[in-house]
Amino acid sequence: MAALSEEVLLVVKKVRQRKQDGTLYLMAERIAWGPEGKDRFTVSHLYADTRCQKISPDGKAKIQLQLVLHTGESTTFHFSNDSSALKDRDAAKELLQQLLPKFKKKANKELEEKNRMLQEDPVLFQLYKDLVVSQVISADEFWANRLGDTNHADPSLSNNKQEVGISGAFLADIRPQTDGCNGLRYNLTADIIESIFRTYPTVKEKYCENVPHNLTEKEFWTRFFQSHYFHRDRINTGTQDIFSECAKQDEQGLKSMVVQGVKNPLVDLLSLEDKTLDEGYGVCTTLPSTSNSNRSVKESSNSAIIKRFNHHSAMVLAAGSRKGETPANQASETSNTDGNSRDSVFFQPPVKKVKLKEAIEYEDLQRENRPKTVALNLKKSDRYAHGPVPLQSQQYTTSQDIINSVNYIQHEMVNYKPNLTQVLSSTTASSAIAALSSGGVLMQAATQQAINQMVPSEVQGELKHLYAAAGELLRHFWSCFPVNTPFMEEKLTGHLEEMLQTAYSKFHIWQTRRMLRKT
Amino acid sequence: MLNIEGLLVHFPYDYIYPEQYSYMLELKRTLDAKGHGVLEMPSGTGKTISLLSLIVAYQKVFPLEVSKLIYCSRTVPEIEKVVEELRKLMEYYSKQTGESNNFLALALSSRKNLCIHPEVSSLRVGKEVDGKCHTLTASYIRAQRHSDPDLPVCRFYEDFDAVGRQMPLPAGVYNLDDLKDFGKRNGWCPYYLARYSLMHANIVVYSYHYLLDPKIADLVSKELTKKSVVVFDEAHNIDNVCIDSMSVNISRRTLDRCQTNVETLQNTIQKIKETDATKLKMEYRRLVEGLKEANVARETDVYLSNPVLPDEILQEAVPGTIRTAEHFVGFLKRFLEYLKSRLRVHHVVQESTPQFLKDIFDKVCIDRKPLRFCAERLRSLLRTLEIADIADFSAVTLISNFATLVSTYSQGFTIIIEPFEDRTPTIANPVLHFSCMDPSIAIKPVFQRFQSVIITSGTLSPLDIYPRILDFRPVTMASFTMTLARTCLCPLIVGRGNDQVALSSKFETREDFAVIRNYGSLLQEMSAIVPDGIVAFFTSYMYMENIVAAWYEQGILENIQRNKLIFIETPDAAETSMALEKYQEACENGRGAILLSVARGKVSEGIDFVHHFGRAVIMFGVPYVYTQSRILKARLEYLRDQFQIRENDFLTFDAMRHAAQCVGRVIRGKTDYGLMIFADKRYARADKRGKLPRWIQEHISDGSLNLTVDEAVQLSKHFLRQMAQPFRQEDQLGLSLLTLEQLESEEMLKKISQIAHQT
What we know:
The complex is a heterodimer.
Chain A: E1 8-17, E2 20-27, E3 30-35, E4 43-46, E5 50-55, E6 63-69, E7 74-79, H1 85-120, H2 122-133, H3 139-160, E8 177-178, E9 184-185, H4 190-199, H5 201-210, H6 217-226, H7 244-260, H8 297-337, H9 341-360, H10 381-385, H11 399-415, H12 426-436, H13 445-454, H14 457-479, H15 486-518
Antiparallel strand pairs in A: 1-2, 1-7, 2-3, 3-4, 5-6, 6-7, 8-9
Chain B: E1 2-4, E2 7-9, H1 18-32, E3 36-40, H2 47-61, E4 68-73, H3 76-97, E5 104-107, H4 111-114, H5 118-121, H6 126-137, H7 139-147, H8 155-164, E6 172-174, H9 176-186, H10 190-197, E7 203-207, H11 209-212, H12 214-220, E8 228-232, H13 238-246, E9 248-251, H14 252-275, H15 277-289, H16 325-343, E10 349-351, H17 353-364, H18 368-384, H19 394-408, E11 413-420, E12 428-436, H20 439-449, E13 452-457, H21 465-470, E14 474-480, E15 489-496, H22 513-529, E16 533-538, H23 541-554, H24 556-563, E17 565-568, H25 573-588, E18 593-598, H26 602-606, E19 616-620, H27 630-643, H28 647-664, E20 674-679, H29 686-689, H30 694-697, E21 707-708, H31 709-723, H32 729-732, H33 740-744, H34 746-753, E22 756-758
Parallel strand pairs in B: 3-13, 3-14, 4-7, 4-8, 5-6, 5-7, 8-13, 15-20, 15-21, 16-18, 16-19, 17-18, 19-20
Antiparallel strand pairs in B: 1-2, 9-12, 10-11, 11-12, 14-22
Helix pairs in contact in B: 1-2, 2-3, 9-10, 13-20, 14-15, 14-16, 14-19, 18-19, 22-24, 22-31
GO cellular component, one term (chain A): transcription factor TFIIH core complex
Subcellular location (chain A): Nucleus
Keywords (chain A): DNA damage, DNA repair, Nucleus, Repeat, Transcription, Transcription regulation
């Protein structure tokens, strides 16, 4: 069997499935189970088809692992080895945990891609209905060619893909649930873990440092949820907490963000006021004293919560836009860290000018003097992005060149006089006119158009669909040549012939139905 | 080109809002009458450009009647915005008339914003920049440099001093950055250049303090011509600025620093006596002769001028008791000891200035007269001693300013000594508040001196209270409505939760769980339906902290996070700035965000939330000032006795102007739109509602006076859906946006006359 050539990552014996003992195999791309004593798998699922895995809670008598597929079906494996059931299960779980996300993304992406293609392309959708839904060919075969095209273009496309941001409430999604016996349960998914890592890079660092050498993954997260770091309103008591360092780093990050200041001068509250007097002048507004000594515990915990929300939101925001903006940020950082006024003077004004301009603009008081534009509606944005003529970057090295060439073209355009008499020779022209006037060679179709109009549009539509479906089948047919693999041969002889037969009979049915209706 | 009752005004836009026309009419009448005016015009209706267009036109046509425009605004960005609008106007002028512009307009700000000296400007903190500048430019330091050329020098000031004065600043519009550029190009100090150019500039834009704070006004604005028009923009808080400029606080820390100051003075005197006794003698002789300034004060020497108003300054010789330097230092010491003893109280003391003066005479035999000269005498001494870093002596300057103030004014001020903060009665932190209660004192010279003073803002309701508390008689008082082609603001009063619990921030229900929960659900529901940005204001920082903590415990904030990111104002300005910027970023990239902020805070006063930066503002509670404050109580009493303004009237007025400021932040123009949610049942009462600006009031329908959260959500949904429809210029034309032809039609002029609501 093909399975023999696959790499087997884990073999777990004594696993029951449907009350039958057997062995569980985890391979590179799929998970499989075979009953004891037989050398074939009765259960085999590709990871890509699997939505998630579920495990039975600790302390239950049966130690189980359930796989839920995208189709909604599920398969349950029962680990029945008395001595090492739990260990086996956990090993399988851990491995699956690593493997599933890899395939999940791919599967999701593929599904999405298929969905998108069908939605965007009505012709394709119709073809899909004609061929796949009516079971002329299988969905896999249908997509085999289509996706091939996109996959080739994929690397460039996926690079341009916008990165998915993080939900602001990902921590809210792990609201603890009481499990009834004096404990709390947090539900963590791979997505949430990724969100935590992206939002709090320090936690990721800690994770890399400690897992798996010092702590198991579970222990790590348990500690995380118990930590002062997670519950920022609790006042830090124990310093042995591994996350106390994270908190410190966060604090520092926040501070450095604050020190860096803001780029938009209109929101800079520090430079808002134009007053340089001492604090002794003016009516004393009873400010909450900033010294921590005389703040109550409650107050400082409150302000910690507030700080935490600001930090959290800033980090979520940064995680969403981190990728695209790093170069810009770096540039501004260098200008900022230099600190002294000379640099900031050079960098500040443009932002400031623009913001001030924006602030005093009354768009409705001005006559709209822009030319009316038509919104660009792109059906296939990738085709727009990859225009037919790639710009040769080395050709236009300086902006001066560009300006020169634009000027040159303008100049040429001004002097351009269409030399219409030279376009066609008079004989060709007259013959073309003759051909195009009624009764001419090219106007023969005019009579055929009558048929075109005679046939009702629905019939036309149906015929078109049949034609397209047949064409698609033919494409499949011809794509099998040259026949150089046994698979091709099988496809060609067995199943394509059958398919063409089906298509033909479909056409026949339609034809007779038409005839019947007509008469 | 508009015709405003015979005055031809260049207006730099193709169209005009009807209320702008109406505003200019009222303004012109005020200028014609050479009187003062109070004008309320909704934010975002182009108030600034209307003001500038009309006054510039007036100046051009009647150069002898109005020779200068002094435009005061609150914040640095506001100042810069005004100058940019002015630039636009001037460019339009030169385009229309074809001649180059001969107007000089400039902005002035503190050294912090204008300094180009590489070392000094890198300090960034206003006080330090001022101090450092002084160490480089004071006349005696520059004199010392003749003998010792190695001393540091500010070449920008030297160059300006050498040649800058002979060449007036060429005509044009100079914003802060332009001044800096100009300064850099010529190697001149932009700050002193700007201060010098104030005298012959046609238009000056600077902050309130340059006119209202006598310590600064005396230095900067002393010689401005009487034939000026003064405009106070964003003037809804002008009374507080006036009060601020005359008040002083002295804490124990101040006194300690003052102690070291006095010791340094004493040592310096001793040293000088040994080396250069003639200097002190010279000073003494001058003081005997009664020269007001013992030395000829150069512009760079004075750090802060006399804290009392010019007409209160005594024009006589310094009394004998403090004429010699040693005597004066001894006098200061005694005064300091007296203040220290006063701060050692265990209970709150409140007394009037005459009581204070009597007490100081009884206890340490200090007369009123030498106290009055204290500030001036100290300045003379500091100059004589040639002390470089005057900023170091801020504590003793503060004390002497206090001495002068307390001995000059017998009315309108109060002294309150509090041994501890109310919230922390166990921690001793004595503070002496010398607090001005009468805003009219500081602004009186402005009204007297300048022929026209215009007080204007988006929120000045009720209009009649301002002339009362500022004690002046305006010739025009008008409130303008906002003509709207679509109702782009939607004020809603949410008085009940879905469970019918009355919503209110009043003291009794402040801790009420049900109210906090309902406030939370209001914010949560709104976060689900409002696009982009929501700003929520609380009545105080403490209140916000408590509510945020309660919401956190109840999990409300987490649910809100599902819809939007949350940013919260903190007492730290830098942190808040960052939160604000991130908030804007989140609104910009479509994620949407909520900003929790505080009424009366910096955000509520200085930051606009245009368009998608604020689609809804929620005012949780009525932002009453902290009424237990003794200073406030004293002021209320004073207002009642002197101006017959009832305490409650004033408190409500104050709360409502801040509420209006907060909600007004979202509407910054007619193409903008926003929800204004007042979440407190007390807003429905006529006495509160009636104090909102007319342009907000007229959109509160009777049906939206006491809504539940659900009802408010329904109304908001409807409103937002309507507003999301495309809004084009054509929709506005003829209604809220006029062409010149439309403006000139008889019918429209009649309509316009109804926009201004005279009181």
